[in-house]
């Protein structure tokens, strides 16, 4: 697919497929098109040319009225967490659950949200408000919210960007667990250490082009760092 | 190492009760809570809408009264009084009566005696004193000719005024152009009223749109998160529309009550005078006007929100 912003091509002739249960890193210098690719998957934008299929749904051709249907299949984790400050950690997770499915009762939403918080290791912090949590805890809540609806796809845009290295590893452990449960996970990151050590599949974008698709376990260069 | 996300199937209660509860919470409870929270930014919209709706109610009732007044005037203008000469013979009067009654443009002809004319005059404000001041009855007998079409009154007047039975000094009640003058005044008032309403509507809609935009802006994070987690569009937009409807309903309620109260005050202050100046405006009409004002308020508030959402929210 391709995506242009006016005369500038943000993504140019990018072809890729992500498999269920696969954790993939998306790397490249700033402005390479990483966020654009994530936005295309979540149908925040449409491709200028080509097709984007998410869990069998044609995101490229989706009408605005059906976008919500696609987004329920895509969990999103942001660098800045995007949690609602007036809700507790538990309510933030439950909020994401209930607005995506009206058939979920309060009791069920609380149960499932507690389970999700337990799964990310902060089950005891459910009553805390975002301003009472550390960066790592906030990101765990964000991951819990993204995963509580059990989406087949999870995308994360610089999920460790605001975290110290130790916390960043904890969050990456979480995302590995999520992938191990069968979810397709795509992580856009600048963190070379994490990408190098985990040895997962790496997609390298430079100036909107997919210049390298390195399979898991392979060791490749990080030439894009020179231009970042 | 954190715990493992269990990807099991959670039980789901697919009951209508849960769905209804969630809809009420997400649409109405959320809207009411946010409305109270944003009252400061909503207040200008509320005030301008209440003012607009009050003006609408007053202009609407005035228009209704003017319409009735015009109808009364039209009825009176198509009723031609042909005044009979004092010493006219019965034969001449009967001949004129027959001639007028047989005319296809005439609906009916009634003979009003001098005594009946006096009784009728005494019901008109100011005329009883005039009648009492004179020792004899100053009012002539007449043939009251009801013309079918108001445009034919002039022709019937021409036909009757030269008749031998008719008073040569003051033959008929025909006042050329009187009805047209009333129509012109009513039309002018209507144009001025609609222009004023149009301007007020523009101001109210603009202020409401801006207040909804401010509400969207203050809750942009919440809106963004709702959209990103897959909330359907109606759930994202619905609370804003309900908030607009609450604003409109409250403004409509205030304006409706004031409209009704003013009308009631007018009626109780002087029912005779009020009926004369605002014919047809009764307690029932005032209540209906208040209800319409309320309904317009709800429509205006929610409609303005929809317009604002289309402009300021991602589709």
| Largest sheet features of chain B | 3 strands, antiparallel
Number of helices of chain B: 11
Average of per-residue pLDDT values of chain A: 89
Low-confidence stretches of chain A: none
The quaternary structure here is heterodimer
pLDDT < 50 stretches of chain B: none
What Rg of chain A do the Cα atoms give? 17 Å
Describe the structure.
The complex is a heterodimer of chains A (228) and B (315). Chain A is α/β, with parallel strands linked by helices and 228 residues long. Helices cover 33% and strands 19% of the residues of chain A. Chain A is built from 7 helices and 10 strands. In chain A, the strands form 3 sheets. In chain A, strands 6-7-8-3-9-10 form a 6-stranded mixed beta sheet, sandwiched between helices. In chain A, a hairpin with a 2-residue loop joins β9 (201-206) and β10. In chain A, α3 packs across α4 (106-119), α4 crosses α5 (135-147) and α5 runs parallel beside α6. The longest helix of chain A is centred in the C-terminal third of the chain and has 16 residues, at 165-180. Chain A starts with a strand and ends in a 14-residue tail after the last strand. The model of chain A has no long low-confidence stretch (mean pLDDT 89). By secondary structure, chain B is mainly α. Chain B has a 3-stranded antiparallel beta sheet. Chain B is elongated. Chain B has helices at residues 16-37, 39-77, 90-102, 114-122, 127-133, 153-161, 178-218, 220-228, 233-269, 271-277, 283-312, and strands spanning 79-83, 106-112, 142-147. The model of chain B has no long low-confidence stretch (mean pLDDT 82). Chain A binds chain B through residues 42, 64-65, 67-74, 76, 82-84, 95-96, 98-106, 108, 111-112, 115-116, 118-121, 140, 145, 147, 149-150, 170, 173-174, 177-178, 180-183, and chain B through 1-7, 10-15, 18-19, 21-23, 26, 221-222, 224-233, 235, 315.
């Amino acid at each position: 697919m391709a995506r242009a912003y006016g005369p500038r091509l943000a993504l140019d002739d990018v072809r890729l497929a992500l498999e269920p249960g696969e954790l993939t890193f998306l790397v490249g210098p700033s402005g390479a098109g990483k966020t654009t690719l994530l936005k295309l998957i979540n149908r925040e934008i449409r491709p200028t040319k080509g097709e984007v299929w998410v869990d069998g749904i044609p995101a490229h051709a989706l009408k605005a009225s059906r976008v919500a249907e696609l987004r329920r299949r895509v969990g999103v984790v942001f660098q800045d967490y995007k949690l609602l400050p007036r809700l507790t950690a538990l309510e933030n997770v439950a909020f994401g659950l209930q607005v995506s499915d009206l058939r979920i009762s309060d009791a069920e939403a609380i149960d499932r949200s507690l389970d999700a918080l337990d799964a990310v290791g902060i089950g005891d912090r459910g009553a805390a408000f975002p301003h009472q949590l550390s960066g790592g805890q906030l990101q765990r809540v964000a991951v819990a919210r993204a995963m509580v609806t059990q989406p087949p796809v999870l995308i994360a845009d610089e999920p460790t960007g605001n975290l110290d290295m130790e916390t960043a590893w904890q969050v990456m452990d979480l995302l590995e667990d999520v992938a191990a449960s069968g979810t397709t996970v795509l992580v856009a990151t600048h963190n070379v250490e994490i990408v190098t050590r985990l040895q997962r599949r790496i997609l390298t974008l430079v100036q909107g082009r997919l210049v390298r698709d390195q399979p898991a376990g392979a060791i490749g260069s990080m030439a894009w760092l020179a231009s970042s | 190492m954190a715990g493992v996300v269990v990807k099991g199937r959670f039980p789901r209660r697919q009951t209508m009760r849960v769905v209804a509860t969630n809809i009420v919470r997400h649409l109405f409870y959320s809207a009411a809570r946010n409305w109270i929270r944003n009252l400061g930014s909503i207040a200008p919209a509320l005030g301008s809408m209440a003012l607009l709706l009050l003006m609408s109610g007053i202009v609407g009732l005035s228009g209704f009264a003017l319409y009735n007044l015009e109808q009364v005037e039209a009825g009176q203008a198509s009723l031609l009084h042909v005044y009979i000469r004092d010493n006219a013979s019965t034969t001449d009067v009967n001949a004129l009566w027959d001639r007028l009654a047989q005319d296809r443009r005439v609906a009916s002809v009634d003979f009003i005696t001098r005594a009946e004319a006096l009784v009728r005059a005494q019901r008109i404000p100011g005329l009883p004193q005039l009648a009492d001041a004179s020792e004899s009855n100053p009012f002539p007998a007449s043939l009251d000719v009801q013309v079918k079409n108001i445009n034919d009154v002039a022709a019937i007047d021409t036909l009757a005024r030269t008749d031998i039975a008719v008073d040569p000094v003051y033959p008929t009640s025909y006042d050329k152009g009187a009805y047209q003058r009333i129509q012109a005044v009513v039309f002018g008032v209507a144009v001025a009223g609609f222009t004023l309403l149009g301007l007020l509507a523009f101001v109210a809609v603009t202020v409401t749109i801006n207040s909804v935009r401010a509400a969207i802006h203050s809750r942009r994070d919440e809106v963004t998160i709702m959209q990103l987690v897959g909330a359907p569009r109606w759930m994202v937009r619905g609370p804003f529309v309900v908030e607009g409807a609450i604003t409109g309903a409250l403004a409509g309620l205030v304006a409706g009550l004031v409209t009704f109260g003013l009308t009631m005050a007018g009626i109780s202050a002087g029912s005779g005078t009020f009926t004369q100046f605002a014919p047809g405006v009764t307690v029932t009409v005032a209540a209906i006007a208040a209800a319409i004002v309320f309904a317009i308020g709800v429509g205006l508030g929610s409609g303005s929100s929809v317009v604002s959402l289309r402009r300021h929210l991602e589709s």
